[in-house]
């Protein structure tokens, strides 16, 4: 059995299937880890959702910011310029697909492989036990009262973890870490407006994985979300979003074995003339 982790698909269904062919992926034998953002911007969000759902236990995906955005739009939030979610929302099986998507986790862990997966990042103040606790809290809120949760999850505050955080502040902070985080300060203040490469970051801003006080140093984590970062291995983290939807590549690595295998990629068919900020 092979286990492959794949970066953000974002509706690039044709590239996804070509990458699986290149990997010789065998459903029923092999497993996929998908870093979230299955949907939006690319042309094949509906086909991607149906295909991944139908893989059942052969595929594990975590929720990304675009996946949560789809759920919010379905619940009544206004769509954004550049969204390509209309085919999903008009599909006859939309309710089944949305229910399946809403039940996906924010954090996936495999103690046998000694790997974990999130869409974006983790704040330096959390160890894996805290990350697990906060992920389960958000997942429970989404399941129990999705309308209230989805309406309250947007915003950049609070920008720092405090053990006494409660209610929507606690949930929003966790969502921002799991689905939006790129940069923070070494003492853990989230810098959610920053993007671009670490080489271009202003003084005091560090990639979340490089924060000196990060309690998950030593934990192997795969993540996506950061297309400007591309494929990068740093401090036991593996960045897999190589910007397929922006004309880059869709990338996979193999996780089983003594060490991760080299990246395997397919080129995107065409670039989107959009800002890759989201």
Question: Descriptors for this entry?
Answer:
globular, 13 strands, disordered C terminus, Purple Acid Phosphatase, chain A, domain 2, 278 residues, alpha/beta, 5-stranded mixed β-sheet
Structural notes for this entry:
The longest helix has 17 residues, at 128-144. Helix 2 links the parallel strand 2 and strand 3. The protein has helices at residues 13-23, 45-54, 65-74, 86-90, 94-102, 128-144, 146-152, 167-180; strands spanning 3-6, 31-34, 59-61, 108-110, 115-117, 183-184, 190-191, 206-207, 221-223, 232-234, 237-239, 249-254, 264-267. Helix 6 (128-144) packs across helix 8 (167-180). A 5-stranded mixed β-sheet has the order 3-2-1-12-13, with helices on one face. The protein has one domain: Purple Acid Phosphatase, chain A, domain 2, CATH 3.60.21.10. It has 8 helices and 13 strands.
**Radius of gyration from the CA trace?**
17 Å
Top CATH class:
Alpha Beta
Number of domains: 1
Number of strands: 13
Classify the secondary structure makeup into a structural class.
alpha/beta
Which bin fits the share of residues in helices? 25-40%
- What order do the helices and strands follow? EHEHEHHHEEHHHEEEEEEEE
Q: Can you count the helices?
A: 8
């Amino acid at each position: 059995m092979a286990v492959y982790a794949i970066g953000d698909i974002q509706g690039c269904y044709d590239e996804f299937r070509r990458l699986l062919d290149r990997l010789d992926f065998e459903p029923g034998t092999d497993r996929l880890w998908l870093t979230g953002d299955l949907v939006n911007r690319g042309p094949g969000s509906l086909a991607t959702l149906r295909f991944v759902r139908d893989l059942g236990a052969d595929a594990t995906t975590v929720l990304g910011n675009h996946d949560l955005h789809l759920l919010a739009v379905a619940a009544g939030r206004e769509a954004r310029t550049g969204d390509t979610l209309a085919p999903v929302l008009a599909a006859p099986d939309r309710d089944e697909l949305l229910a399946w998507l809403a039940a996906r986790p924010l954090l996936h862990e495999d103690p046998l492989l000694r790997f974990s997966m999130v869409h974006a990042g983790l704040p330096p103040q959390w160890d894996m036990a805290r990350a697990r606790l906060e992920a389960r809290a958000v997942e429970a809120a989404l399941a129990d009262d999705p309308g209230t949760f989805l309406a309250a999850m947007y915003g950049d505050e609070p920008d720092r973890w405090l053990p006494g955080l409660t209610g929507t502040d606690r949930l929003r902070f966790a969502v921002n870490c799991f689905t939006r985080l790129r940069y923070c300060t070494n003492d853990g203040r989230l810098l959610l407006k920053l993007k671009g490469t670490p080489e271009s970051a202003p003084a005091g801003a560090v990639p979340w994985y490089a924060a000196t006080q990060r309690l998950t140093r030593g934990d192997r984590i795969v993540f996506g979300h950061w297309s400007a970062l591309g494929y990068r291995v740093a401090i036991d983290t593996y960045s897999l979003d190589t910007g397929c939807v922006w004309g880059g590549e869709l990338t996979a690595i193999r996780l089983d074995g003594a060490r991760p295998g080299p990246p395997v990629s397919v080129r995107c068919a065409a670039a989107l003339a959009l800002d890759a900020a989201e």
